[in-house]
Amino acid sequence: MSITDQVVDLMPTLLEQTGVMMWIVALSLIFGGIAGTIVGTALYVTRRGGIMQQPVVFWVLSVIVNTFRPVPFIIFIAAVQPLAREVVGSGIGNDAVVFGISIAATFGIARLVEQNLMSVDPGVIEAARAMGAGPWRIIRTVILPEALGPLILGYTFAIISLIDMSAVAGIIGGEGLGNYAVAYGYRQFDPVVTWSALVIIVIVVQLIQAFGNILARKILRR
C-alpha cells in the first residue's frame, strides 16, 4: 500500500481525533481562560500602584501562580488525578484531561493577562479616576478594552500551548490527535501516522495564529 493510500485510509480517524483535540482545547480554554483572566486581572489591580492596591493579596496570588506555573504538565496532570476524581468523577479520560489542562492553563493565562494589562497607558486610567469612575468600572470599561488587542495575541499563544498540553492526554487515558500520533505512530513505529498527525497539527496551529493576528490587528487599528 502506498503512503497516499495509507493517508486516505487514516483520514477519517485523523479528523475524528482532531475534533476531539479541539473539543478538549476549547473547553479548557473556556474554563482556564475565565479563571486565568480573573486571577491575572487581580494580580494587575492589586499590585503596588494598582487601582485596588493590596500588597498582601498580590503576594499570595503571585506565590500561588509561581508555584504551579513551572511544573511540567506531564507531572501536573498526574498529580491532580485525585482532585479530578472528586470534581469530575474520574481520574482518567477526557473529562479528567480537560480538568487538568484547565487548572494548568489558569496559571499560565494569569501571567499573560497580567503582563498584557501592564501595556495599558496609566494616563488613561488616571483620566477615568479623575472623572469619578470606580475601580470595577475602570476594569470593565478602560483596562480590559484598552488591552484587548494584546490580550487576543496572548490568548492565541495560550491556545497553541493547550494543543501542546493535549498531546500528553494519553498518560491518563485521554484522546486527541497528539495522543493518537504518539500511541499509534511513535509507539507502533508507523511514521505515516506520526507525520500525518503532525501535518494536521501544524495546519491547525497556523490557522489559529493567523486568525489571532488578524483579529488583534483589527482591534489595534481602532
Automatic annotation (TrEMBL):
The keyword Protease does not apply. SUPFAM superfamilies: MetI-like (SSF161098). CDD domains: TM_PBP2. The chain crosses the membrane at residues 20-45, 57-84, 96-113, 147-172, 192-216. The keyword Zinc does not apply. Keywords: Cell membrane, Membrane, Transmembrane, Transmembrane helix, Transport. It is found in: Cell membrane. It is a multi-pass membrane protein. Residues 18-211 form the ABC transmembrane type-1 domain. It holds the Pfam family BPD_transp_1. PANTHER family: ABC TRANSPORTER PERMEASE, TRANSPORTER, PERMEASE PROTEIN, PUTATIVE-RELATED. Belongs to the binding-protein-dependent transport system permease family. This is Methionine ABC transporter permease. It comes from Citricoccus alkalitolerans.
